[in-house]
Specification:
This protein is 55% helix and 9% strand. By secondary structure, the protein is of the alpha/beta class. The structure holds zinc ion.
């Protein structure tokens, strides 16, 4: 993920704060334990001085490590017993880490830890609209009441209500199996049938389970690529390297077909879809276009990638935004 220097500094400041908080917690535990059992403080001091003695002796060639090792093991064993006697686990006084992989440094050697990526996304999206939107658009607020229970959809034999129940259940399976099973969704249907709402529901579930989710309208997606390809400055709130578009856990492309299409956007769309299939990274696309319109608008190779790697879900219903405005229900 390509962050600006100031974004990188901001993430590192988050780690500083985490380490300070954890150090504070460790100090509190020490005070708590030594108040309940002062002997532990003596033992801790003895362990520290023995360790230092051992280091000096071994460096000076005065002693082998084995005799000190046995002594230190014995001291540690006594400490663990004392901790157990006051009902504390044996690692209670050990350093506290929120991430045991990188010890809250953000890096494992030269490599960024996965927790760094998560923090970077939180940062990039902190002020963007997705987090605000999913506070109101999520599965807790999702309602089937907007979908007609009586009139079957011609050619499908299902009512919009039953159709939506099937689709929501497919979305839940997508979320539940997200880490185990690679999958992509294409939600299509008329304006106002709930496509964006549903993608927001999925985004929230995956963000809540620490997955990296990038939400872009098709227009924004192509702008990101243009900024990268033509070195244009990125002034949007969600400023990140377009490589990240290829690599985040879930990419949501909303409103495909609203962009001003040309050979550049078509080649970028193919590149993005194809690259994410190769990397086995999931995508959700929503569009007002019908399947035949998708086929006519984009190239055959895009259409064939979509039909082979995506679950095509057709949402059917009346315009929910309109119903909410007029107070009408199906
Ligand atoms: Zn980490």
């Amino acid at each position: 993920m390509g962050l600006t220097n100031s974004q990188h500094d901001a993430v590192m400041r988050i780690y500083d704060a985490i380490r300070t908080k954890n150090q504070h917690l460790q100090n509190e535990r020490y005070s708590e334990v030594t108040a309940a059992c002062p002997e532990i403080a003596d033992l801790e001091n003895e362990i520290i001085s023995s360790s230092m003695e051992a280091a000096t002796a071994i460096i000076g060639g005065l002693s082998s490590s084995t005799e000190y090792k046995a002594h230190l093991q014995e001291l540690n064993r006594r400490k663990e017993n004392l901790l157990a006697s006051i009902g504390k686990p044996k690692d209670y006084l050990e350093p506290v880490y929120s991430c045991t992989e990188c010890h809250d440094t953000g890096y494992i050697g030269q490599q960024k830890c996965s927790c760094f990526t998560k923090k970077a996304i939180d940062l990039v999206y902190r002020d963007s609209n997705l987090k605000n939107i999913i506070a109101s658009e999520n599965f807790d607020t999702f309602s089937f009441e907007w979908y007609d229970k009586k009139t079957p959809i011609p050619g499908l034999g299902l009512t919009p209500y039953n159709n939506m129940q099937n689709i929501v259940s497919i979305c839940h399976t997508f979320i539940d199996n997200f880490d185990a099973q690679y999958d992509n969704l294409l939600l299509f249907g008329d304006t106002g049938v709930g496509k964006t709402f549903l993608t927001n529901c999925i985004a929230k579930e995956l963000l809540d389970t620490s997955h990296s989710v990038i939400y872009l309208t098709a227009i924004e997606l192509f702008q990101k690529f243009e900024q990268q390809d033509f070195n244009k400055p990125d002034t949007s709130a969600a400023s990140f390297d377009s490589n990240y578009i290829l690599d985040c856990d879930l990419l949501i492309i909303d409103d495909l077909g609203t962009e001003f299409g040309n050979s550049y956007t078509h080649s970028k769309l193919f590149y993005c879809i194809n690259e994410r299939i190769l990397r086995r990274r999931s995508v959700i696309i929503s569009t007002n276009l019908s399947l035949s319109e998708i086929r006519n608008t984009y190239s055959e190779r895009i259409f064939s990638r979509l039909t082979s790697a995506y679950k095509m879900l057709k949402l059917v219903g009346a315009d929910i935004r309109l119903m909410k405005k007029t107070g009408q229900k199906p």
